[in-house]
Fold this protein.
Amino acid sequence: MKLQDLDSQKIENGNFHTSLSDYRFHCFLKQVGFIQVANPAHTHNNLFTPNWQALSIKYLNTPDSKLLSKPYKLDFMINITERLSSTIAYVRIDMYYIENTQQVFVGELTMTPNGGTAQFEPNYWDKEFGSLWISK
């Protein structure tokens, strides 16, 4: 499947996109600090360490109660994000992973997700993740 095939399927089959989770890699000074997984409807966000340890944090939306399994290509996805972020102090890199074909697509790179206004609960995570950016 090519990227244009993914787009055309999304257009031809209006619910194609409902099966894709959005893997959002928050990169600080060339390294993944945490991974945000948004469900297809963007009503839940789960946060993970780069080693796929679940974090008990609310970010924008409540975490999904379903157990999210580690993507088979997670190491590959992290490698891509760290290469793409190598010259950027902070960037969120969004990816889509299609499990049955094991394909990875880069969706977007953003330097100011949510205009920088989204907060973590509990709020001490704001400082914790901020320290990944300023302490190096």
